[in-house]
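Attaching the record inline, Q. Sequence:
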Amino acid sequence: MTNITKKPFGKLSTGEEVSLFELKNSSGAYVEIIDFGGAIRSIVVPDREGRLGDVALGYDSASDYEKQGKFIGALIGRHGNRIEGARFKIGRRVFALEPNDGRNSLHGGFNGFDKKMWKAEIDGETLVLKYHSADGEEGFPGNLDATVKYSFTEDNALVIDYSAVSDEDTVCNLTNHCYFNLNGEGSGDVLGHVLQIEADHYTPCNRECLPMGFVAKVDGTPFDFTVPTAVGERIGDRRRFEQLAFGNGYDHNFCINGSGFRRAATLSSPESGRVMEVYTDLPGMQFYSGNGLDSREPFGKGGRPINRREGLCLETQFYPNAMRHPNFEKPILRAGELWHHVTVYSFGVEK
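Structure, as predicted:
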C-alpha cells in the first residue's frame, strides 16, 4: 500500500506556501512531488544491491524551483516542446504566443504550467493536482482545466495520468520534464547509461530544433536505439551527423512504434543495475540528453551544481511543431472533449 504524506517546502517570492508530498510504498521506495509546477523532486528506488538512491534531479527549496530555467521535474503545458514562430492556427483563427525560445514558443511560454501553483488533493493512494488555465493565458485560447494524477505502485512504477477539458478549441500537449540519472543524482554524467527506444523513425529538425515535417529512418544513424546502446557512444559524432550539431547532442522526437499503450523505451545503468521502462499511449517521445544543463545557480540537492548531461529526459508527447505540418497528428483539444493520456516510468533492476 502506498502512503502519502504532506509537509511544508518553503515559500515563493509571492509569499505562497509550497508543499511537498511523499508517496511511499511498503518496500520503502518513494517519490516526492511538489505542488509548484507539479514537479517531481525525487524518485528513490533500489539498486542491484537493494540500496535506495535518488534517481531524479531536483532542488532543495521552493525558491530554487521558482528561479530555475531548465524545467527540471516539472509538469509542462499547455503545449510541451516547440511551436514554430510562436503562432498556430485552428480553423481560420490564428493565435499568437509570446516567444521564449528565439522566435519560437517552448514548453508553454515564459509562465507555463511549470511556473504555476497546482491545487493538490490526496485521494487514497493517488496525488491529484489540478490547474485552471484561463482563456488567453500565454496566448492560448479557451478556459482549460488540467488534472494530473500521480501514483506510485508497490512494484516501483510511477504512473502519471493526464487529463484536460476546455470550453474552446485549443491545443494541449501535456508532459513531464523529469531528468533521470539511474546512478543517483549528483553521481556524474549519464553517457554510460544504456538506452533502447522502440522507434524505427524519428523527426529530423532544423537548427532551431524544430521538426521539418517528415520522418526519417533511424537505421544507419546515431538515432538508432532499436537495440540497447550507450547514450554516449555516438553523441559526439557531430561532423558526420548534422542533426547532433543542431541539438548539441540528442534533443529529438522519436516516433514510437505501434499505437495504444505500449513500451516506448528502456533505460539501464550497468553501474547501479537500475532499469527504467517507459510506457505511454502518446505517439512520440523526446529524448533529451541534458545538453543545456550547466553548473550555474540554482544548484541542485545538497548544494551541488547540476552539470551538463548529468540527467536525461524521456518526454512522452505529440510530435513537436505538429501544428505546422499537415502530416503530423495534431494536439488539438476540441471544446467539451476530454484529453486523456497515461505515461508510466517503471523502475527495477537488471536480472
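The chain has a mean pLDDT of 97. The longest strand covers residues 339-349.

More tomorrow.
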